[in-house]
Amino acid sequence: MKTISVTVNGSVFEEDVPERLLLVDFLRDRLALTGTHVGCTHEGVCGACTVHLDGEAVKSCMMLAVQADGHAVTTVEGLARDDRLSALQEAFARHHGLQCGYCTPGILMNMTDFLTGNPDPSEDEIRHGLIGNLCRCTGYVHIVRAVKDAARVLRENTGGAR
Ligand code: FES
Ligand code: FES
C-alpha cells in the first residue's frame, strides 16, 4: 500500500492504494467517477479510459494510480464548468457525435487535448488524432464534424479547448 495525493477535477484526494492499482480503477472504484470507461480490458487499444494528467490526454488503464501521485487528473466529469458544457461537448450534442456513448468520454478528453495543440485542424488531422479511440457505432463522420465545429467555436471565442 502507498498513500497518494491526487487532485481530481479540482479536489484533492488522499488515499491508500495498492501499488498495482490502475488509475482507471482508482477513478471508477474509489472515487466513483464512472464516466471514465473501460472498453478493452486494460490493453490500451480502445481509448474509452482517456483522462487528462496535468492537462495531457493519457489512457488511464495504462497507468498506475501511484503514478498520479502529486499530479492533477481531469475526468469527463470535470469538463463542464459551472454547469456549462465545454464547447466540444456542446458540438457533440449539436452534431449527434455519439450513439451508445460508450466511447464518448474518452473521445471528449482526447479531442479536448488535441484541440489545445491544434486549434484549426483539417479533417485528416482530426481522424489521425482519433486513431487511439475506437467507436463501434458512429462511423466517425459525426464525431469528426463535431470536433471541427468545436474548433471553429473555440477559435471564434479565442478561449482554447474548453
Ligand atoms: S480501457 Fe484503456 S484503452 Fe481500453
Ligand atoms: S457511440 Fe457507441 S461506441 Fe461510440
What does this structure look like?
The chain is of the alpha+beta class. It folds into 2 domains: 77 residues, Beta-grasp domain (Ubiquitin-like (UB roll), Roll); 70 residues, [2Fe-2S]-binding domain (DNA polymerase, domain 1), CATH 1.10.150. Helices cover 33% and strands 15% of the residues. It has 5 helices and 5 strands. The chain has a 5-stranded mixed β-sheet, covered by helices on one side. Helix 2 crosses helix 5. The chain binds FE2/S2 (inorganic) cluster (2 copies). One FE2/S2 (inorganic) cluster binds next to loops.
Number of strands: 5
Number of domains: 2
Beta-strand fraction estimate: 15-25%
- Would you identify the CATH architecture of the largest domain? Roll
State the low-pLDDT regions, or none. none
Oligomer: single chain
Question: What attributes characterize this protein structure?
Answer:
5 helices, alpha+beta, 5-stranded mixed beta sheet, DNA polymerase, domain 1, Ubiquitin-like (UB roll)
Short overview:
With 162 residues, the chain is α+β, with helices and mostly antiparallel strands.
Helices, strands, pairings?
Layout: E1 2-8, E2 11-17, H1 23-30, E3 50-53, E4 56-59, E5 72-74, H2 87-94, H3 104-117, H4 123-129, H5 141-157
Parallel strand pairs: 1-5
Antiparallel strand pairs: 1-2, 3-4, 3-5
Helix pairs in contact: 2-5
